[in-house]
Amino acid sequence: MNSEPEEPLDRIRSEIRADAEAVRQRTPLPERKPYTGGAGELPDGAAHVTIAALAQHAGPDFVDQAYRAILRRAPDADGFARQMAALGAGAGKIEVLGDLRYSEEGRRHAVDVAGLRSRYLFAKLGRLPIVGTIVRYVAAFASLPHLVRYQRATEASLAVRFGETTKGLREAEARDVELRALIDATRVDLASAVAELSERLAKNERSTAELHRHVAGLHAGVVELSQLALTMNHWTTEVRKAIGSIESAQAERRAANDETEAAIVRHARARDAQRAERLRAWADEAARRLPRGATIVDVCGGSDWLAELAARGFKASSIETNAALHRDARENGLDVTLGDPATLLARTADASLDGLTMPSPERIAASIELLREARRTVKAGGCLLIGAADAVTTDRLAGAGFDATTLELPAGRVLVATRT
Amino acid sequence: MNIGILVPVLSDKDAVGADALEMAAALEKLGHTVRVFAQTTIGHVGVTAKPAALADFVAKPDDLVIYHFSFGWPPGLPLLRGLACRRIVRYHNITPASFFEGYSQEYVGACASGRAEIEPLAALGCELYLGDSPFNVEDFLAAGVDASRTAVLPPFHRIDRLLHTHADLALLDRYRDGSGTWLSVGRIAPNKGHLDLVDAFAVYRRAYDADARLLIVGRADPRLARYTGAVRARIDDLGLTEAVHFLSDVNDGQLKAAYLVADALVSLSAHEGFCVPLTEAMALGTPIVAYGAGAVASTTADAGLVWDSPDPYPYAASVARLRSDAGLRRALRERGLARMHDVFATDALVAGLAGVMERFA
User: Fold this and answer.
1) Parallel, antiparallel, or unpaired for β B305-307 and B288-291?
2) Which chain A residue's Cα is nearest to B71?
3) What single-letter DSSP state applies at residue A115?
4) CA–CA distance, A10 with B31 (Å, rounded to integer)
5) Order of strands across the sheet with B244-247?
6) How many Cβ atoms sit within 10 Å of the Cβ of residue B149?
7) DSSP state of A89
8) How far apart are CA A23 and CA A274, in angstroms?
9) Pair B54, B79: CB distance under 8 Å
10) Which element (helix H / strand E) includes B349?
């Protein structure tokens, strides 16, 4: 089995858990038995210990054994650290044993440590100023015979050790030879591995060079594409500029046309002596047919017509196709929207208007599209008022679902149609 | 700023000593004037002063004391209470006394008195309670410390020294024979879960590899002889006497060799405040299989196979899978090395310590 490094650890853990359950079934473990062995403390009653038995231990083991032998317990952390520090500072084992044995706790246990008292006192005496120095000299002099014997024993011991060391050195040399052989063999293996790696490296370098060439080719293609994109961008900008110029010229022409048409309309309305009377009569007719507060949308009727409607309590607004006339109306504070009437009515909700007026058919014809929107937006019972209607318009209105009537008013004819 | 590092017992051998001494060195590199204060020292720990001199060294209000808290030390509370400077409690955790019930009344007492100091230390209102792990911080949060006064910084260590030590050839030769090798590192104490470890190893021997061996690297404490006896008795009951090797007092070279020769570091420890052997295994590329108790899960993260109970069977199956799945071994090794580099490497720890010190700028 060989999991990939990226293999999810959770899946591996699930497999391990399943394996563990299978093993549990076929490999049960025996129950643990309660442990009935000793607690590690020294047995009671060991009232006699020897310095030699304790001194054979060293360092932490010595401190531990001394506590157990003399104080009948394991050392506490602080005491253990203190005695270890004393040994580290050069104190002898006799002093440590004596400190324990003749402490208050040690005296309570009264363990007999043969020969400790005199040696401990002597060790303590050696710590006194001046007297201690003399004592140490006397002791050293007195122990000269013992030291000589010890030196001879040491020489014999060293000779043995020397032999052992020499033997150890020979073994180490043999081991050295063996290791050198191993190193040589490893070196050969390494050389072989290095050769193989070099070959792989050369192969990789060739692949890398080929890859570089491929990347360079791709890079040239990208540069060419980039140039083409820049060229296209340049031409797109030029086309946009040209379209902008055309649109600007069209806008200028439209504005000029609107100004001309506005001048004509203003002139015509100024010369129409009966316009004010006619509009009042038409507005009165509208008031007879529609309640106050009714919503009326006018199409190109002019500011004076809108004012007449407002004066009769209607919520009147107007659609104007001419920008100049729209500007005039807005300057008079009227609710007028500039745009194509059919388009603007298309944004109006179904059956949301009480009336629609087109008092100036010379400016805007009752087209099929406009009548279709009128039919959709004017409520049933609502009305349509068109100035100076002709037979064609009357027919269209009938087809669009309006009941049209031409009224002959003193100031002029008007076509009034009711939404059926 | 003067910074006093206060450690009741400072040893050059244990994890607390390594954290305190390496932290002191890092703080000096960050430009602070640092001095280490210890009641007792063991081994080569450099120049230290006695705690009685601490108050004079950190006399200004903007000086700082970092108290390394890992066992009960009654003089610590009044000493910290009487200081005019700012204080950090660096918490390495204390094993709950319940683990030692039935094994050592001395340990029960020592652990209980140590944990009894958590609440008074929390009540001191120190500026920061800095845990080795999120698990350690929980003790002080439970004692009422506001979360804003806590932070986590993994312990400093001497793994670099282990990396640069030559592995012991004799130990490598002895155990590199192709048999499955489990490794456990840590002192032999009841919270370390040796009984569960032995059970898991027994399952592995019976189900997968009858020649496998378990190396238990760690010192047996004479005061816990009853626990050591219980572990040995279980080993004998399961017929593993020849298969379990106790390695005590190993040097760095032997420890490194043990990691290198092992198929996995297996830990069933039930209580760890951080668990340095996990980071040693990561640094040396030894896969980890562990019981995620205490801080083990957060220390290991996704760099090992961590289980949520000490049930022995998944551990046996995990080592078997590692032995047969080179991709999994490689993946865990790479994750361990990356985690060591990104989170626990000395540079990362120094950067983390600098972040902690920004609170005291």
Assistant:
1) parallel
2) A77
3) T
4) 46
5) B244-247, B213-217, B181-185, B264-267, B288-291, B305-307
6) 18
7) T
8) 113
9) yes
10) helix B346-357
Task: Give me the DSSP letters along A301-358.
Answer: --HHHHHHHHHTT-EEEEEES-HHHHHHHHHTT--EEES-HHHHHHTSPTT-EEEEEE
Q: Which strand ranges, in their side-by-side order, compose the sheet holding B128-131?
A: B33-42, B2-11, B64-69, B86-91, B128-131, B150-152
Asked whether B268 and B245 are in contact (CB, 8 A), the reply is no
pLDDT tens digits for range B113-154:
999 999 999 999 999 999 999 999 999 999 999 999 999 999
Contact assignment for A19 to B110 by CB distance below 8 Å: no
Nearest CA in chain A to B321: A16
Q: Distance between CA atoms of A143 and A149, rounded to whole angstroms?
A: 10
CA A351, A355, A361, A364 torsion: positive or negative?
Answer: negative
Nearest to B14, CA basis, from B283, B230, B219, B239: B219
| CA distance to partner chain B, nearest, from residue A116 (Å) | 25
Mutation for testing the A interface, residue in B321, B323, B329, B335 having most A CBs under 10 Å: B321
User: Which among A12, A23, A40 is the nearest to B203, CB-wise?
Assistant: A23
Q: What is the ipTM of this complex?
A: 0.90
Residues of chain B contacting A17 with CB distance shorter than 8 Å: 314, 317
Look at the pTM and tell me if it is higher than 0.90. Answer: no
Nearest to B313 by CA among B233, B214, B201: B201
> What single string gives the DSSP state of each residue in A183-220?
HHHHHHHHHHHHHHHHHHHHHHHHHHHHHHHHHHHHHH
Q: What distance separates the 2 farthest-apart alpha carbons in chain A?
A: 164
pLDDT confidence bin for A388, thresholds 50/70/90: low
Pair type for strands A378-387 and A412-419: antiparallel
List of chain A residues whose C-beta atoms are within 8 Å of the C-beta of residue B228:
40
Closest CA to A106 of A126, A120, A86: A120
- The C-alpha atoms of residue A202 and residue A206 are separated, in whole angstroms, by 6
Contact A33 B237 (CB under 8 A): yes
Distance, CA of A147 to CA of A151 (rounded, Å): 6
Two tokens, residue A89: 């500072």
**Taking chain B (361 residues) in consecutive chunks of 10 residues, what is each chunk's mean pLDDT?**
94 90 95 93 86 94 95 91 95 95 88 93 96 96 96 95 92 89 96 97 96 94 88 94 91 94 97 96 97 97 96 97 94 95 95 95 85
A-chain CB neighbours of B103 within 8 Å are 39
Distance of CA B81 to the CA centre of its chain: 28
Instruction: Residue B302: list chain A partners with CB under 8 A.
Output: 9
* Number of CB atoms found within 10 A of residue A288's CB: 9
Amino acid identity for residue A234 in this structure: H
Determine if residue B166 is left, alpha or beta; phi over 0 gives left, psi from -120 to 50 gives alpha, anything else beta. beta
Residues in chain A with CB shorter than 8 Å from the CB of B321 are 1, 12, 15-16, 19
Q: Any alpha helices (H) in B74-124, and if so which ranges?
A: 76-81, 105-115, 118-123
- List of E strands, A41-116: 48-50, 112-114
Between the CA atoms of A170, A176, A179 and A181, what dihedral angle is there, to the nearest 10 degrees?
-90
pLDDT of amino acid A91:
83
Is A21 near chain B, with CB under 8 Å?
A: yes
DSSP, collapsed to helix, strand or coil, labels residue A365 as coil
Buried b (16+ CB within 10 A) or exposed e, A250-285: eeeeeeeebeebbeebeeeeeeeeebeebbbbbbeb
What's at B181, amino acid-wise?
Answer: T
Q: Are A32 and A24 in contact (CB under 8 A)?
A: no
**Measured distance CA(A334)–CA(A228) in Å, rounded:** 55
Contacts for B85 with CB less than 8 Å, ≥ 6 apart: B2, B58, B59, B60, B61, B62, B63, B64, B65
**Strand A402-409 with A378-387, pairing:** unpaired
